[in-house]
Specification:
elongated, 3 helices, mainly alpha
Length: 92
Amino acid sequence: MKLPDENHLKDLQKNRIAEKLAAEFAGTFALVFAGTGAIIINDLTGGRITHLGVATTFGLIVLILILYARRYFGSYCKSRRLLHNSAKCEHL
């Protein structure tokens, strides 16, 4: 079996860094855009969204980004199991 040469490994590492930077940029953009948008909409509507709605917006953004970007960061999360255990309070 032939081992990869150093140039090939460096190219793979550069691609991996580019993917991580793209995921970081997308996450920051989503948090700033949607989170700040929720705050502004809450202010324009006279507080109809409330703090709970703004907090839910931020939480959903983080959840979506974790589930989307987990392949880039190598995280392991089974969302069905996580929701099931959270509902049963087995994590406490």
